[in-house]
Amino acid sequence: MDQAEANEKIVEALQKKKGKTKFYFNDLAKILDMKPRVAKKLINKMVEDQILEYWSSGSTSLYGLKGAGKQAAADGEE
Amino acid sequence: MAKHKTPLLDQLETGPWPSFVSDIKRQAEFRKANQDKIDYQIPVDVCEDLLGVLELSFVHRRTHWKHGGIVGVFGYGGGVIGRYCDQPEMFPGVAHFHTLRVNQPGGKFYTTEYLRQLCDLWDFRGSGITNMHGSTGDIIFLGTQTDQLEEIFYELTHTLNQDLGGSGSNLRTPSDCIGQARCEWSCYDTQALCYDLTQEYQDELHRPAFPYKFKFKFDGCPNCCVASIARADISFVGTWKDDIRIDQEAVAAYVGGEFPPNGGAHAGRDWGPFDIRKEVIDLCPTECMRYEDGKLEINTPECTRCMHCINVMPRALRVGDDRGCSLLVGAKAPILDGAQMSTLLVPFIKVEEPYDEIKEVIENIWDWWMEEGKNRERLGELMKRQGMQKLLEVTGIKADARHVQEPRTNPYIFWKEEEVEGGFDRDINEFRKYHQR
Amino acid sequence: MAFVSSGYNPDKPMEDRITDIGPRKYDEFYPPVIKKNKGKWLYHEILEPGVLVHVSETGDEVYTVRAGGCRLMSVEHIREICEIADKHCDGHVRFTTRNNIEFMVDSKDKVEPLKQDLLSRKQEGGCYKFPIGGTGAGVTNIVHTQGWIHCHTPATDASGPVKATMDVLFDDFTDMRLPAQLRVSLACCLNMCGAVHCSDIAILGYHRKVPMLDHEYLDKMCEIPLAIAACPTAAIKPAKVELEDGTKVKSVALNVPRCMFCGNCYTMCPAMPIVDDVGDCIVIMAGGKVSNRISAPKFSKVVVAYFPNEVPRWDQTTACVKKMVDVYAKEARKYERLGEWAERIGWERFFEKCELEFTHHLIDDFRDPAYFTWRQTTQFKF
Question: How many CB pairs under 8 A join A and B?
Fold first, then answer.
């Protein structure tokens, strides 16, 4: 799977989820239907390209579309 | 004059132990005086407001911090913990008060030159308050504002040749004991292995793709000074296979009272003269030692390397020559099913560069855990859920009596079809020829 | 203050970016005597509390003076450490895993001036800046978590009770009168960032009240599925709630008996605060260890279910810790760790000797392993 296809699949799948904007890594790997260690490269790139962003509880990390979610604004401090 | 009155905290400025309150006040004064004319990048009174909010917590007996989802610098999913004060108007200096985790050097050795560089950076761009060190082992920079995070990272990487540590669902910053650098008991070079694996797995450390946190800790011997067996998903505990090296003359010197037992650790009380039988031979958990006619003998195959005799007589007994480490896996502290201790997986593995054998075990475990682990499930919990057998299967390690404390007490073995001759498919009609319905 | 750029360009975050370089390499920072003798050490000896000598097969010696420290440390304090290390140790210093500072010198005559220097430095209120000790059969520094200074779910402070406890245990930090080493740890909630679960004595913050539900704001501030997923016991479920003014909002409901007071929901959902002045308390655990010496590593056991958060000095907590240490010092055999002693005499005797009340809260009722901690023999002591 190339990067563009991965981007499209993930963005589409995440936009469809109602009321939920933060996802575990394995949720993303499942969308790509890939083994986690392989999916990681594509997902890392999506963060670098600012399509996805991280959110962390300190102990657990989550992924979301950039800017999405109720806590995004608060965390932006504005 | 202090900005906030702190009558409760002030009561922690007496007594012999160092006072963190006095220390923070000192930093507050230092910032206020600003003799070096530093162009502080976060509020000058940050330390005063920190004391103020802490005093308020002492009054309310409740924290005044909120969590924030900030994770790191650009492209990193760990290394920063977001914090906000829930009384920002009262304490504007700490309204945003994020933490950075900075990956500590092995053995926590420093030059003052380097420590001062860290101090100068943190003074300039942060609160000037640190933890030396955090529980996992990192240097903790406690409290800065969001716009400083990238700046600090840029200076760390460009000027100090220094990276951040881990947080979140990452490989957490690995940490090691002092090891061979200054300990005669260390069975492998903990710092070398810790550093090599930290460098090898930088991507795992910075970009979260695990179900939850994952910790490596490196103990040079079974004394476990960094507590790897209690808190690491993979505990690397040094051990050896051959004879404990005995210097009989030194044994005699202990018996004769020339050398203090246990390296002098018990000098604060008169325990009477050293009694090798009572203090060493009789306390050996495997009874594998004999002391007769002034000669100490150890029946090596029966020894479980608990370190007691070596700890008591460090000048007479030394760890063997055939050294390596044991790998134990799955420890964790809190929640779900309660605390878990690490479980022995690899009784002995040589610790030699480039550590390929060790990396193979690690990566097999990760492949399994990343695929099968539920969200927020530690390795030890997955082991519990899917069984030790599964762990052995995915790592290709053969079951061994060393893997258990005792064999199972129930016979409820889940035989797999392929393990039973002829499989599970049977002909009911053939059976009925001999057995009526 | 004017913003001073490091050189980082926020419009092009990847420009000149350096990543994945890891920590500084350990051997850059070794003192010369360590570099030369690494892997060649023959033996060590504790010359007096807080002072060690390690002897190498090359004949070299390194003398270490161990000083206690607050893990919460200002850069001015670190600069003072640097000043001492420059003066006595050729610019080298290290820290231990238990927040002690180790100053190393390469000959014995350098030890005394170093010690004098360390002990002469006091804070304004008279506290030592660098108390010497923490070796051998004594109490070493407490490892701990953040508490009220930085954490969002603590059930107690960390630095405060640590200071209070170390003041009470100070004589055992500077002495070696105990039967074996005694490790005290503190974690400010049951998430145990500090992994206190295998300590001779553990001080643990614990919440006793379930989180509050800020219904009016919950759906605005939080993602409800995340709050639900955060709960380790599946005690949270989605719910429709009618506010006092009659408006209906999406929120959550709590299965109260299932709550184990971990605060994970609050981390994910700030509209579910858990901290409480009365509810939050201290739990005392005892008898754990990590060393494999003589007996296997063990978990600490809960010996006190509740002490209130008594600011500023946690009097009942520190008195209880001190009592346990003193009874252990008097009763245990040489080399016996606190947990080994308690197991030898029996926990019923431990409670009696330490004058602790045994209550129903101390009987395990958490999941399967609880059963194996109940007494299943006729062997017990009256």
Answer: 86
Same fold: B175-239+325-418 with B245-318: no
Query: What CATH class is the domain B175-239+325-418?
Result: alpha beta
As assigned by CATH, the class of the A3-67 domain is: mainly alpha
Question: Out of 3.30.70.2500, 3.40.50.720, 3.30.1490.20, 3.10.350.10, which CATH number does the structure's domain B7-158 have?
Answer: 3.30.70.2500
The pTM of the full predicted model, rounded to 2 decimals, is 0.96
Of C14, C221, C267, which has the smallest distance from its Cβ to A70's Cβ? C221
Sketch the domain layout of chain B as residue ranges: 7-158, 175-239+325-418, 245-318
According to the model, what pLDDT value does residue A71 have? 61
Residues C116-142 pLDDT 10s: 999 999 999 999 999 999 999 999 999
Is pLDDT of A76 > 70? no
DSSP-assigned states of every residue in C235-265: -EEEEEEE-TTS-EEEEEEE-GGG-----HH
For the B245-318 domain, the top CATH level (class) is alpha beta
C14 and A57: CB-CB below 8 Å? no
Q: Two tokens at B192? A: 């070398």
Burial of residue B61, with CB atoms counted within 10 A of its CB: 0-12 exposed, 13-18 middle, 19 or more buried: buried
Segment C218-259, tens digit of pLDDT: 999 998 998 998 898 999 999 999 999 999 999 999 999 999
From the list B72, B81, B370, the residue facing A37 with the nearest CB is: B370
Q: What is the pLDDT of residues C332-355, one digit of tens each?
A: 999 999 999 999 999 999 999 999
Helix (H, G, I), strand (E, B) or coil at B145: coil
Torsion angle, alpha carbons of C93, C97, C100, C106, to 10: -40
How far A5 CA lies from chain C's nearest CA (Å)? 23
Name the strand (E) or helix (H) holding B296.
strand B295-298
CB contact under 8 A, A25 and B69: no
